[in-house]
Amino acid sequence: MALNFIEFFQKGKTFRPKKKFEPGTLKHSLHKQAQASLNSGLNLRLAVSLPPGEDFNDWLAVHVVDFFNRINLIYGTVSDYCTEESCPTMSGGQKFEYLWADGHRYKKPTPLPATQYISLLMDWVEEQINNEDLFPVKVDVRFPKNFLSTCKKILTRLFRVFVHVYIHHFDRLVAIGAEAHVNTCYKHFYYFVTQFDLITQKELEPLREMTQKICKDVVIGPSPHPSSPSTSVPMTPVRHHAYVS
Description:
Order of helices and strands: HHHHEEHHHHHE
Helix content: 40-55%
Distance between the termini: 41 Å
Radius of gyration: 18 Å
Shape: globular
Number of helices: 9
Strand content: under 5%
Largest sheet: 3 strands, mixed
Strand order of the largest sheet: 1-2-3
Structural class: mainly alpha
């Protein structure tokens, strides 16, 4: 019997401890529902739809935490191969580079090795989802006004981990037999963020061509960078685009 996503990746190392929902809560129930959809082989495009009668913010919170956990598991499988020597910049091939800025330690956009960038990124996401003022755990506590904008930023940053892993460490995923599992997670992520317009097309551009191949029912509009060819693996050296976090 084939292992599902969680069973497969729990055999290996996790980049950092998983964020869990308290049993008996609404979010735990929604989490189990979302997890069951991913593991059951259901149509993922339909599985991301908001269940009737449920609050969108609760659905969004559950998915943000689940994607954080899953992307941690995925990155954990390649982290030993993602070093300052192998990946001196946080990039998606030769065309896209991500600069880190957090308004505190890094006040100006700063190029960093991928391993350092991703560590700072995950620290930041973990801080957000553990903040009960931002991600309330009690049913009677309302979500703050900046909840949606914060979730968009979290998902945008998590997408950049997908970009780096797919373009620079895909051979490792294939070597351990993780390709199909990661593709399923990516499809789930992509369908969710596009269903609710949570990440801009400009940000999605680095995996545009790959997305069209693994999400066969997706019709993607013209590239945000029409003067440049579509991104593929490996990438052709073209005009460089730096994205600031």
